[in-house]
Design brief:
The chain is mostly helical and 280 residues long. Helices cover 55% and strands 3% of the residues.
Length: 280
């Protein structure tokens, strides 16, 4: 078994075993564990990822950052297309495949977002959302090491999100690892301003991020049209939530459940086809 998938499988098992834990919030029965993991991820972000992202944003020209975001966003469109088809959204899935075809050819391998300029809408779908559309409940909130905010459903879907990411198969390994590192730093750099707003505005950042994540994930499962009776009263302005998804390795990237998918997390809406100014 792939080492990454093996670790994630062990993590899912550990979360299941810890199911006897209790918490004050029915959606967060593992709160003690989650807060400890949140602190670990936050410390890692402050020591390593945030400084790297800050340097990346300050040093590299904007057109380079946009090109990096476009390139990995184009790869993410492949898995998004598959998930749209699995959810029965055939038109959206075909739109996504067309985006990949256009951006991979006319867009110089995805460095330019020609698809958005041509009117091909960008979507962001992962297997956790697909399971939600199929009727699977999200289950309790869980904070994963490095990956950050998740639910039991999204955690179970993460291995398939990784398998569905074309970058997972990039050879040689050292190039794949370097690309993954650049991808993470680029994702973190895209939400530096959002994370600063959260740090300034939230009295309890853990609760703020938890509620924002759960609300955003539910909205994304239903494409913003949550059925009556399933919605939660929104207490978080979506302007705080960055959507280039897939996933964040730390909780500071609020809306990225997975590293798109190693996402994951989410930096901004599709930019122009030009390399000049950047999404559950």
């Amino acid at each position: 078994m792939n080492p990454v998938l093996k670790r994630i499988s062990m993590l899912v098992l550990a979360v299941a075993i810890s199911g006897c834990a209790t918490g004050r919030n029915p959606q967060d029965p593992f709160e003690s564990y989650n807060r400890a993991m949140f602190s670990f991820n936050d410390g890692l972000d402050r020591v390593a990822l945030k400084p790297a992202a800050t340097a990346y944003k300050n040093v590299l020209p904007q057109f380079v950052q946009t090109g990096v975001g476009n390139f990995f966003g184009n790869l993410g469109d492949v898995w998004t297309a598959v998930n749209n088809l699995l959810q029965g959204k055939v038109e959206d899935g075909l739109n996504d495949f067309m985006r990949v075809a256009v951006n991979s050819t006319l867009g110089l391998g995805g460095l330019l977002d020609i698809g958005s300029e041509a009117g091909l809408q960008k979507h962001r779908e992962d297997f956790g959302q697909t399971l939600g559309r199929w009727g699977m409940a999200p289950g309790p909130y869980v904070v994963l090491p490095l990956f950050g905010s998740s639910t039991v459903r999204d955690t179970a879907a993460t291995p398939l999100d990784i398998v569905g990411d074309p970058w997972t198969y990039k050879d040689p390994t050292n190039v794949r690892n370097m690309g993954t590192a650049v991808r993470l730093v680029d994702l973190r750099a895209s939400v530096l301003d959002a994370s600063s707003l959260i740090e300034d505005a939230a009295l309890d950042r853990y609760e703020f991020i938890r509620d924002a994540y759960l609300q955003r994930r539910q909205s994304r499962v239903y494409d913003g049209d949550v059925p009556k009776g399933k919605g939660r009263r929104s207490t978080v302005d979506d302007s705080y939530l960055n959507e280039r998804s897939a996933a964040s390795p730390v909780d500071s990237v609020v809306a990225v459940p997975v590293i798109e998918p190693i996402e994951a997390p989410v930096p901004s809406q599709a930019p122009s086809a030009q390399l000049s100014v950047k999404s559950e």
